Amino acid sequence: MPTYSLDHLDQIEAEAIYILRETAAQFQNPALLFSGGKDSIVMAHLAAKAFWPARIPFPLLHVDTGHNFTETIDYRDSFAEKLGARLVIGSVQASIDSGRVREEKGPFASRNSLQTVTLLDTIESQKFDACLGGGRRDEEKARAKERFFSHRDEFGQWDPKNQRPELWNLFNGRYHPGEHFRVFPLSNFTEMDVWMYIQREGIELPALYFAHEREVFARNGALLAVADCVPMLETEKAVKKTVRFRTIGDITCTGAVESTASNLDEVIAEVAAARQTERGTRADDKRSETAMEDRKREGYF
Amino acid sequence: MDLLRFATAGSVDDGKSTLIGRLLYDSKSIFEDQLIAVEESSRRRGDAVVNLALLTDGLRAEREQGITIDVAYRYFATPRRKFIIADTPGHIQYTRNMVTGASTADLAIILVDARKGIIEQTKRHAFVSNLLRIRHLVLAVNKMDLVDYSEQVFQDIVGSFYEFASRLDNVADITPIPLSALNGDNVVEKSDTMPWFKGSSLLYHLETVYTGGTANHVDARFPVQWIIRPLSQEYHDFRGYAGRIAGGVFKPGDAITVMPSGFSTRIKKIHLPGGKELDEAFPPQSVVMTLEDEIDISRGDMLVKANNPPEASQDVEAMVCWFSHQPMQSRGKYLLRHSTKETKAIVQELRYLVDIETLHKKEGASALGMNDIGRISLRTAAPLFYDSYRRNRLTGSFILIDPGTHETVAAGMIV
Ligand SMILES: Nc1nc2c(ncn2[C@@H]2O[C@H](COP(=O)(O)OP(=O)(O)OP(=O)(O)O)[C@@H](O)[C@H]2O)c(=O)[nH]1
Ligand SMILES: [Mg+2]
Description:
CATH topology of the largest domain in chain B: Rossmann fold
Oligomer: heterodimer
Number of helices of chain B: 7
Strand order of the largest sheet of chain B: 2-3-1-4-5-6
CATH superfamily of the largest domain in chain A: HUPs
Mean pLDDT of chain B: 94
Largest sheet of chain B: 6 strands, mixed
Structural class of chain B: alpha+beta
Bound molecules: guanosine-5'-triphosphate, magnesium ion
Largest interface: A-B, 60 and 77 residues
Order of helices and strands of chain A: HEHEHEHHEEEHEEEEHH
CATH class of the largest domain in chain A: Alpha Beta
Radius of gyration of chain A: 19 Å
Number of domains of chain A: 2
Low-confidence stretches of chain A: none
Number of helices of chain A: 8
Number of domains of chain B: 3
CATH class of the largest domain in chain B: Alpha Beta
Helix content of chain B: 10-25%
CATH topology of the largest domain in chain A: Rossmann fold
Strand order of the largest sheet of chain A: 3-2-1-4-6-5
């Protein structure tokens, strides 16, 4: 008897592909949330594989805070072009200009929480009924609780105390008008799995993920990039360091780590030895003990 | 690397989350910032020791109440294996979340509080695990520190569990382990507090237990999920059927039959996602197949081998777990989702309800209430192509959806 067994990366890949196809089949108008970070890059790569040799049957949606690294934006544009995917952009700047949201003030201001309004407005105006997110359950303790198919009410809210049961590989994507779903194909990937998958598939990443020289300053135990949108305090000092990013969100809340890892092998070795979670450098999670859950309840990614 | 999916089960406060926290902590799978956050929360709450349950009880309401409400998924690896853990709630009110976590597990750890022994909720979870065909159980007798690490207490509990479990027909093996999740005894390392225990630690058992997976490699089943028609220059005539193999092994050249149309043809090619060609495909691979002939095939159809078809019928008998506050009524109408197919279904009859305490069948009941388990007969609007759940988890399972609320109200296992 031959043994039919799959390596764990093959298993979680097959699962993610199944979820992506199920999303295309169950919803009228899905979109893939694309931030330019490694998880959404992996998700888009999986989507391209899932529908091969056809194109991805839904657009990429980027919620642009206006505070992105230029590398991210460049990568986004060329990546979408390469996939032949339509790119929809929700602009936080436009939400601010139209008075939908008010910009936070002061040196610790971040547009991170404003993104939720722009995201929900875009979902409504584009009539998206499912948004594919690159969230992983190993990232954070509230995310560890999320279903693959995660229901959102007509206000875009998540109700973690009352999630739908989700059994076997049977997904219930039914909703009432005005409601939508968030779908997480990478739920069972860990940070290490993502890196190993990137290596196995030869996926090209933005240079930000590899060691480079950059002007940074220390704040709250993280190294923030020096940039126009992050005003420094008198007491804070810019220094040049060799750094890389473990996660990439908007500039105001994404911390760098000191590192000399300049290729995938070195990054993987570093991830394997890491003593801090990747979100340990994210200022947006440090605002309270349940910061992620609170944001997700409101409709955050 | 090899992957083992397991779930915790057992009554509220028996120490499931603490055990998972301890397993992660002692196997060095916790990051420094996670540990610091848990230490700080414990201190704020006034806990005497670091409360490792906070590693999985991540929701605000869970932390406030000190209970698990919904299943938490955690991941860790040792040099031997990768693990996906589902830490499920013990409270009866959240049984549906326990079932969610257990439905994809290969092994269940049934926890028991050594002071309380086997209680109804222990039995309920053991019964559900058996119903879901989780073939490997660990009986974790926890809080041994509170019973002076007594061998007698352990043996009594093991004895009464075996007595109950003799009626669980799907369970292949039960491994009893005495432990203290709080102190870490017998979790990762064997403890010298219980020298009378000759078995191995929990982690060693999880690393080495042979499960063989749950997939069926005999009966070829391919539920069509999505049709791929690129309509591009390069792939002008390409028509591919995408889906996940639910059973058996498919090879290019195989003669297949399409259900329900009954048309027969051969498989031309099988591609992995992204295009790589395969010599054979088996569960749980996601693939795209092309066929020799152009046949009308849509989502919800199933490709099978002609000499080994599944059952095809509008009448099915099933065991169901009921999840909704609204009881299931005889003649009630629901949407039924089975593999990639959705159809309407009507409950013909509630045959019996299972008494969890005795496992006896209670006949003559008129409704199935929340958290009840019973056997029903259903009639569907369109035929289902199915195997018994015993034979194949993927083609033998379904869910029922309330057409008004869109809630998932039941999990069904075809008899
Ligand atoms: N003395 C002692 N206390 C324990 C042990 N394991 C857990 N506890 C305590 O038992 C209580 C409940 O533990 P949890 O881990 O939250 O229980 P649970 O089974 O996850 O509960 P639910 O998820 O709500 O069903 C907590 O106060 C733990 O500290 C143990 O081995 N010894
Ligand atoms: Mg718990």
